[in-house]
Amino acid sequence: MITVKGVYKYVRLGAERTTALRDLTLEVPEGGITGVLGPPGSGKSTLARLVALRDTPDAGVISVDGVNTMSLDRPRMRSVRRDIAMTDVRALFAGRSAAGNIASPMERAFFDPPRIKAEVAKLLDLTGLTGAAGCQPGDLAPGERRRLALAQALAAGPRLVVADDSGEGVHADSDLVVALDRARSELGVTVLMLTSDVGMAGRVDTVALLRDGHIGESGTLWDLIQRPDSLVARALLPEIAGPRIGEGVFDIVAEAVLPGFSAIGSLMPAAAIRFDVDIQIVGGGITKVGETPVARFLLGIDGPSAADALDWISTHCSVVRDRRTFIPAPALSPEIVAAHTHNSASARAAGK
């Protein structure tokens, strides 16, 4: 639906001109949820405004359905822009109820009152705010206000919603992602979510890492998990200790990423029996990518057939990395690491 190709955007800070986005390329496919992950100051809000056609790039192309938006005249640009909504808590009316805020775009479009009432009820349910219909924005928690901003954006009937969490100062929450997923599945809306919260990346279809105004990596989570240099995968998957753990104790030390309960529960015992080796889990843990459990284990393998066992395991895993040759990926930025630590701690607490 949206293609950003080779985009540059410059901003002025006093007398200085700085590059907010540089040679940025991104695909936002129709009907999916695309997540852009990056620390504060990486350019997420600038990218959000460009994708929503609220601003124009200094170089490069932004296309909608294959049409270069820079070639559109004003009437056509206004028509295309109506199909794209941005969530913005600053656009909420302080003196109106949650229901009144959702109704406002439909009132401006002169919808019939019965239709407005029905649509407001539907959007309150979709965003989990039915019980807060009569509350004003100031009475709501930060996460509820963001969902109200989403409902208000959806009320305009867009094809694409740009959900920018960058200026909120708090992490995205699971209720927001559930609402975005429902908007995608029930309303057919395409979603672009921009956030610094690593945990949210596990709930999207495709993800891109934005660093210093440039997309460093992008793809589906399953694709990224299989890349040894993927920073997104390393932030999402459970942490394990460095490559020297187990050195000199086991014949082979390897990292394995296993999707699904069946692989997690049966693969190691099956390999141990088949090749008459001892396999121990030295470190790692289990997390979820979407609704699928994914284990990242550091395995210690002992026995004459240790190498054969590792080869066999590799045919049944998403990825196996032999720690004798594996070089760790470079560290994520402090902000991304902090976000991951926050979500890892929350997940561990929830599991107790």
What would your notes on this structure say?
It holds the Pfam family NIL. The protein has two domains: 2-233, Rossmann fold (3-Layer(aba) Sandwich), CATH 3.40.50.300; 243-327, Alpha-Beta Plaits, CATH 3.30.70.260. It is of the alpha/beta class. It has a six-stranded mixed β-sheet with strand order 6-7-8-3-9-10, with helices on both faces. Strands 2-1-4-5 form a four-stranded antiparallel β-sheet, with helices on one face. β12 (278-289) and β13 (292-302) form a beta hairpin. It has helices at residues 44-51, 74-82, 98-108, 113-126, 142-154, 174-187, 221-225, 231-236, 261-275, 306-314, 334-351, and strands spanning 2-13, 16-28, 33-37, 59-64, 67-68, 84-86, 160-164, 190-195, 206-211, 214-220, 252-259, 278-289, 292-302, 319-322. The protein has eleven helices and 14 strands.
For the secondary structure, the number of strands is 14
Query: What structural class do the secondary elements suggest?
Result: alpha/beta
- Using the alpha-carbon principal axes, give the shape: elongated
Question: What is the makeup of the main sheet?
Answer: 6 strands, mixed
Mean pLDDT: 84
Give a quick rundown of the structure.
This protein is of the alpha/beta class. The chain has helices at residues 44-51, 74-82, 98-108, 113-126, 142-154, 174-187, 221-225, 231-236, 261-275, 306-314, 334-351, and strands at residues 2-13, 16-28, 33-37, 59-64, 67-68, 84-86, 160-164, 190-195, 206-211, 214-220, 252-259, 278-289, 292-302, 319-322. It has a 6-stranded mixed beta sheet, sandwiched between helices.
